[in-house]
Design a protein that fits this description.
By secondary structure, the protein is α+β, with helices and mostly antiparallel strands. It is built from 15 helices and 9 strands. Strands 1-2-5-4 form a 4-stranded mixed beta sheet, sandwiched between helices. The N and C termini lie far apart (49 Å). About 4% of the residues have low confidence.
């Protein structure tokens, strides 16, 4: 806290010595760039910390409309809102990702999200060669074994567990991603990836896969502890699958295909609580804005899994928990398999309840629960 106060004072003092006005042009959208260096960074970070980003963005829309300029982390930025904005940022190759320099140093300059045009298409194609459903089908059993092992090590024998324990990554299958990317150009040199691209994209997938899946599963655990109707329906669906298998048999791709209700619940959970609010691609856009738009999703604050009963349940580029268009997450099928396998074993092997009534969270930038989502567990009888 002391460092934060000192840093804030420093920025304020520095800003006094810099021009408070900037050259403008009629081509710029409405809005303000704020004080030099600071811009809207502090108020944005405060909204993240208090989980009020949606209200913060709604206020900007009220004042300036669906397109406005601002300054975040010393970068002049444009905020876009709406279905068209989602399409503009997710589809085509007009915009590359433009994360803050600190994030880019971690994820690398050749990360897929930083690329556009042919480079993006080439690297995305290489990643999809490993993450496409045809490849993932053979790894369902491996994920099953890893989930069982994880629960045996971290859940069985414990009365209370921190939900963050599920964030420990499920092991990568035997034919690993790095081997796949190293060999991707053997038959076609045009899609060969450099060492830098392989490193940057493996790091990017580790970060994205770890945080997004664990956030979704954490929210599902909270939901199933508080909504008995949803819990009963998921329990019925999962028991129907479990009763036709022996305890030693591993889940199969066909078993996952039967978990339709469970996945609809996961989709609705992602709509209401997207793991990542949005992204920077020279503009800032927020998934939560269309997810909570009553013109697209009636009564958006109400949990309703029937919204996703049909394949095309929402207009294009309105549900963007996994991105959209050419920027849709290449690991979305992997995340689906992982989520369904974990939920299957949680509901068929354990009962649980929340240890704290207050399960509020902040964003940093992923959701962080105030008490770490501590739950009390009870193994079910075999």
């Amino acid at each position: 806290m002391d460092f934060t106060i000192c840093f804030t004072i420093f920025l304020l003092l520095v800003s006094l010595y810099l021009p408070l006005t900037r050259k403008t042009t009629k081509k710029l959208p409405p809005g303000s760039l704020g004080l030099s260096l600071i811009g809207q960074s502090l108020s944005f970070l405060r909204a993240m910390h208090t989980n009020t980003v949606e209200q913060w963005l709604q206020e900007r829309i009220r004042k300036y409309g669906p397109i406005s300029k601002l300054s975040l982390f010393r970068i002049p930025t444009v905020f876009l809102h709406g279905q068209g904005a989602n399409k503009f940022t997710c589809d085509g190759n007009l915009l590359a990702n433009q994360q803050p320099p600190s994030v880019r140093r971690i994820c690398g300059e050749r990360n897929m999200t930083e690329l556009i045009g042919d480079d993006h298409k080439r690297v995305r194609g290489a990643l999809l060669s490993f993450l496409k459903p045809e490849m993932l089908k053979q790894y369902v059993g491996k994920m099953d074994e890893d989930v069982r092992r994880h629960l045996e090590m971290h859940w069985h024998g414990n009365q209370k567990v921190m939900e963050a324990a599920l964030e420990q990554r499920i092991a990568v299958p035997n034919k690993d991603l790095i081997t796949c990317l190293l060999n991707i150009g053997n038959n076609d040199p045009s899609i060969l990836m450099s060492d830098e691209e392989i490193i940057d994209n493996v790091i990017g997938l580790m970060i994205a896969g770890h945080d997004t899946s664990s956030v979704l599963i954490t929210f599902l655990v909270r939901l199933l502890a508080t909504d008995q109707s949803v819990y009963a329906n998921i329990m019925q669906e999962q028991e129907e699958i479990a009763k036709i298998r022996t305890s030693e048999e591993l889940l199969t791709w066909d078993d996952l295909a039967k978990m339709k209700y469970t996945w609809r619940v996961a989709m609705e959970t992602s709509r209401m609580n997207p793991p990542l609010l949005g992204s920077f691609r020279k503009v800032i856009w927020a998934a939560c804005m269309t997810h909570m738009d009553e013109r697209i999703f009636p009564d958006p604050s109400k949990f309703d899994s029937t919204r996703f009963e049909k394949q095309a349940s929402a207009p294009p580029y309105c549900f963007v928990a996994f991105g959209g268009g050419t920027r849709i997450c290449p690991g979305n099928e992997f995340a689906k398999i992982e989520t369904l396998v974990i939920i299957h074993y949680l509901v068929t092997r354990f009962k649980w309840k929340l240890c704290y009534l207050d399960n509020s969270f902040t964003r940093n930038p992923f959701p962080v629960f105030s008490h770490g989502m501590l739950i009390e567990i009870e193994p079910k009888n075999s």
